[in-house]
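Annex B.
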Amino acid sequence: MSNNLPKVAWIGLGIMGSPMSENLIKAGYSVTGYTLEQDKIDRLVAAGGTGASSIADAVGDADVVITMVPASPQVEAIAYGPDGILENAKRGALLVDMSSITPQTSVDLAKNAAEKGIRVLDAPVSGGEAGAIEAVLSIMVGGEQADFDAAKPLLDALGKTIVLCGPHGSGQTVKAANQLIVAVNIQACAEAVVFLEKSGVDLTAALDVLNGGLAGSTVLTRKKDNFLKRDFAPGFRIDLHHKDMGIVTDAARNVGAALPVGGVVAQLVASLRAQGDGGLDHSALLRSVERLSGSQV
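2-hydroxy-3-oxopropionate reductase: predicted structure tokens.
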């Protein structure tokens, strides 16, 4: 363990947080983790990290605190209050929130943290579970240049494309745009799959040739097998994409941007969730198209 690397506290060890924190350990960082499920803390310890009994216990000694939780309410729950990060982290610590939340929540967090002498970056990610495991995430960051520069070596251990997008909240805004593009892309692929199958075409061959042309995409590459096998084990749950579509439609409305197709896909995601598919991978948008096309799903 190299002693000159910053000490890291990691809060939130879910589908993304676990492999990401393990990549930091592999890169030589000392990582102390806390999350709600003990078995996830045990996994971190098995990977060479240290378990903490509370948020306060995890962050007290940390130079950098990284958070990766589901949504704005969870970020607020772990950041604020007597047991939260802001009350228990040391002055000068850098808080890097990698959750996907509303831009406004990130702006407010940075402002409140500054009063405690704590620097903040919003640094949401794209690339899903596979990107987290392979350390090839795209990381969009909002905050100060100096803080970004300080965090960059650490972020390099987690992702491949790491970009400062502007002031606090900008990372979240870019992430919202990312989720808009991904959802619309999955929906288009799902519609193509149903159309191809109903037409009696060899689906594997069709998706291969489509992915080699202008219709090709990272979404199609990553989700092709999900479509072919109807395997919707979650890499990224519909429930979370539903939350993200709420963020992007709300934020777009606030700035006066029209998202006509995004609005439709947001409703399709909402309907999938209402039909009990919220725990499935977002590639399960295919199920919605199948139902609309008369298939019993």
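The chain has a mean pLDDT of 97. The chain is about 55% helix and 15% strand. Further annotation is deferred to the next reporting cycle.
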